[in-house]
Structures are given as C-alpha cells and as structure tokens.
Amino acid sequence: MKGFRKDEGKRQKAEVLFIIAFCLLTSAFCLSATVDRIAALVDRQVLTVSEVTQIEDIRLFPRATGQSEDDYRHAILEDLIAQALRYRDVERFGAADVSKDAIEARLVEIEKRFASPDEFNAAVQHAQLTMDEVRALIKRELQVENYIQERFAPMIGVTTEEIENYYRTTWTQQRQKRGLPVLPLAQVQDEIRTTLKSSRLQTEIDKWTAELRSHANVDIYAWQ
User: Fold this and answer.
1) Whole-number pLDDT of residue 95
2) Which pLDDT value is given to residue 45?
3) Are 218 and 12 in contact (CB under 8 A)?
4) How many Å apart are CA 181 and CA 178, to the nearest integer?
5) What pLDDT, on the 0 to 100 scale, is given for residue 94?
6) Which stretches of the chain drop beneath a pLDDT of 50?
7) Judging by DSSP bridges, how do beta strands 45-48 and 38-42 pair with one another?
8) pLDDT at 9
9) Quick one: 36-220 is in which CATH superfamily?
10) 90 C-beta neighbours (distance < 10 Å), count
11) Can you spell out the DSSP letters for the chain?
12) What pLDDT does 84 receive?
C-alpha cells in the first residue's frame, strides 16, 4: 500500500504540473497573466502562495510574539495543510453548520489583532478578499474546531491526583520563577484542570493530524 500511495502521489503531481505547463505553453491568455505559485500539494488539492499571503494579511491565524515573517508564513502553510487534512475528515461525518453569532465573534477576535477596524478593513482589501469570503474562511475553521470538541474533548479526563501533582511541581515552580505568590490549591484547581485538559486535547489533535498526513501525499514547495 505504501508503494501504491507513493506512485499515486507522483501521478497526481504530474497531472497538476502538466496542466500548468500546458496552459503556459499553449495559451496566450495564460502567458500574459500572472500565474500563482504552488505552495503545497495535498493529494490533488493545490495550496497557493497567494493563499498564504491572504491569511498573513488578515491575520486569520495568530502570530507568535517575536516570530519572523518567514517563520510565520511557514507556520501558516503548515496550518493550511493541517486544516485541509482535518476538514476532509470532518466532511466524511458531515460538517455541522456554524451559527452567525459564532462567526461574528471570531471575526471580532481577528479584528482585535489590528490597531483599529480601519486597519483591519484595509488588510482585507489588500488581500483582495470580501468580508463574506473572510467569514467563509472563519466558518471552515470553526467547523473543524467544533468537530474536534465533539470527537476528542469528551475523552479527555483529569484526576484530582494529577491536578495536585501539577500544582506541587510545574505550577508552583512557574509562579516562583516569575516572583508571583503561590496561591492555595483550592483557588487554582479549576485553572489547572483546564490547562491539563487543553494540553492533552492538543496532543490528541497532533496525533490525529499526523495520522491523516501519513495517509496523504503532501509536498511543500514554497511559502514566500
């Protein structure tokens, strides 16, 4: 099966490259137009460099503090690949609808990544997107997030012993290192439970994504 997937991947890439080459060589229209570069291939799905740029422009995915532009764009491409793989799985079970309120709430979160609403609107315009297209991107992202919550979150449990152990070690050490008071366990146990659940949920997401990627042909070409 591994050899079959490898051969299939080569065939799929050859098809995409042939179409692009044919268009460039035989069509005067294509020769005069700006041809977008391929950032990555996920089986037959093409992700383009312009898509990476659009996501960067509107800051759909948050940028880590101190992250360089090159690292941020690379991270965006990896996130787009992961989202493409996850969304396929979501579609297999039927992507649930997302409320308009949830979409608008996420839109407000993204807007707050800019200095002002005008700066955000300018970024959307620069990305050559409409607000409806931005909302569509958000909806897709939320559909994947909701699927994750339904599929994985119920399986994540944290015991009282695990909370107490985390409190005595990691949590207390981090507070002391930052010069902050060590509060009683009773005051912070809910916070610790949430932290542990989030960490374990992310581990499950990473394992799921790695499994999906192992069954796909993913090739990265560029993100700049």
Assistant:
1) 81
2) 94
3) no
4) 9
5) 82
6) 2-6, 22-34
7) antiparallel
8) 52
9) Porin chaperone SurA, peptide-binding domain (1.10.4030.10)
10) 19
11) -HHHHHHHHHHHHHHHHHHHHHHHHH-HHHHHSPPPPEEEEETTEEEEHHHHHHHHHHT-SPPPTT--HHHHHHHHHHHHHHHHHHHHHHHHT-PPP--HHHHHHHHHHHHTTSSSHHHHHHHHHHTT--HHHHHHHHHHHHHHHHHHHHHTGGG----HHHHHHHIIIIIHHHHHHTT-----HHHHHHHHHHHHHHHHHHHHHHHHHHHHHHTS-EEE----
12) 95
pLDDT at 33: 41
Query: 147 vs 48, 54, 86, 93, CA distance in Å?
Result: 26, 25, 9, 9
Apex CA 126: angle with CA 83 and CA 120, to 5°? 75
Provide the pLDDT for residue 36: 83
Assigned token pair, 186: 């009773």
Q: Given this model, what pLDDT does residue 13 score?
A: 55
Cα torsion through 143, 144, 146, 149, rounded to 10:
170
pLDDT confidence of residue 74: 96
Residue listed under structure tokens 């880590």? 64
